[in-house]
Design brief:
Structural class: alpha/beta
Distance between the termini: 19 Å
Strand order of the largest sheet: 1-2-3-4-5-6-7-8
Oligomer: single chain
CATH class: Alpha Beta
CATH architecture: Alpha-Beta Barrel
Order of helices and strands: EHEHEHEHEHEEHEEEH
Helix content: 25-40%
Number of strands: 10
Number of helices: 7
Shape: globular
CATH superfamily: Aldolase class I
CATH topology: TIM Barrel
Length: 230
């Protein structure tokens, strides 16, 4: 059965963590970028992670943090994965992952002039640089950090790359099904699209988003079944 993984990012409250877990999401994200309205301290993240049951991945989003800063955060908050959203080079990303002993997601902020070959080349570069590289997270390029909340041109994602990437950028309850059916990513990542206000999640939107992704999975599975019968 085809199953797209789901990450809900930018959690700040225990009740939001509980809503994400109840909805069946696979991963939770905490933002360690102080200018963000979703910022949490390592100590607060540790409190929230204490409410997370086994087998739900806890991810930390960092922007231009040093290896020492990320390692110090991971000592306080038991993160499973780090997500790098700034201007970190590949070498910087590798150093951060080595310092904290975690796998890393590397954001690629897609511009209008990004070519499909650019995405493939960057993924190959990251994968060759460290065994701790997990995946690219594709977001929309804007002059800001930590997530744009805007959609980019999904047709730029090569079909051979899509099953390995995390799709982000402007996803919502209304667009999730179409996004997953068209792109077929390994995972999707959403933050502002399931909020009642900045930094405060909406339990109904979270549940509806998960349902929309699962609807896409069902469509993909039906298509596969029809292809196998053809």
């Amino acid at each position: 059965m085809h199953r797209t993984r789901i990450k809900i990012c930018g959690l700040t409250r225990v009740e939001d963590v509980q809503a994400v877990v109840a909805a069946g999401a696979d991963a939770i994200g905490f933002v360690f970028y102080p200018p963000s309205p979703r910022y949490v301290t390592p100590e607060r993240a540790a409190e929230l992670i204490a409410a997370v049951p086994p087998f739900v991945t806890c991810t930390g989003l960092f922007v231009n943090a040093s290896p020492a800063e990320v390692a110090a955060t991971c000592k306080v908050a038991p993160l499973s994965l780090v997500q790098l959203h700034g201007d970190e080079s590949v070498a910087d990303s590798v150093a951060i992952a080595a310092a904290c002993g975690r796998q890393f997601l590397r954001v690629f902020r897609v511009k209008p002039d990004t070519a499909p070959a650019d995405l493939l080349e960057y993924e190959q570069l990251c994968r060759a640089a460290s065994p701790l590289f997990s995946s690219l997270l594709l977001d929309t390029y804007v002059d800001a950090y930590g997530g744009a909340g805007k959609v980019f041109d999904w047709s730029l994602i090569p079909k051979e790359l899509a099953p390995r990437v995390v799709l982000s950028g402007g996803l919502s309850v209304l667009s999730a099904t179409d996004a997953v059916v068209r792109v077929r990513p390994y995972a999707v990542d959403i933050s502002s699209g399931v909020e009642a206000s900045r930094g405060i999640k909406d339990a109904r939107k979270i549940a509806d988003f998960v349902a929309a992704v699962r609807a896409a999975d069902a469509i993909i599975e039906r298509e596969k079944s029809h292809e196998s019968l053809a």
